[in-house]
Design a protein that fits this description.
single chain; 128 residues; mainly beta; five-stranded antiparallel beta sheet; 2 helices; 13% helix; elongated; disordered N terminus
């Protein structure tokens, strides 16, 4: 994507009331933290019919390095990945393949547990 197209997308995104409320798109939800953006995305790249991949990511824009792990919550269950280190200016993500059952239309929440801090969450998203 060209820089101008990217800036146009960012401008439309910034102007959208849905984005301000935490919904970055139809199957994406994000929240702005003090030093970056945490998001959850339900990806149609799953390899099993009626399932979506769950992708949780964090784009760290500033601040000192962190030790954290991603997770997501759906249907009353939490699912966690392993810990990682992240420095400013990087994006980390974890994918759970075929994890979301599309036909249930249940909400999923992205999470990031930061060592020595707290667990941050995205607003809920559904794949419907």
């Amino acid at each position: 994507m060209r820089r101008r197209e990217l800036s146009d997308v960012r401008a439309r995104r910034a102007a959208s009331p849905a984005v301000a409320a935490g919904n970055c798109g139809s199957v994406t939800s994000c929240t702005s933290l003090g030093s970056g953006e945490l998001g959850i995305f339900l990806s149609s790249a799953a390899t099993v019919e009626n399932r979506l991949n769950v992708v949780v990511s964090y784009k760290k824009n500033s601040g000192s390095s962190i030790n954290a792990r991603f997770g997501y919550s759906s249907s009353g269950s939490n699912h966690w990945a392993g810990y990682f280190n992240q420095s400013s200016g990087t994006t980390k993500r974890t994918t759970w393949n075929n994890a979301y059952v599309h036909s249930t239309c249940k909400s999923a929440v992205g999470m990031m547990q930061v060592t020595g801090q707290q667990t941050f969450q995205t607003p809920p998203v559904t794949g419907c």
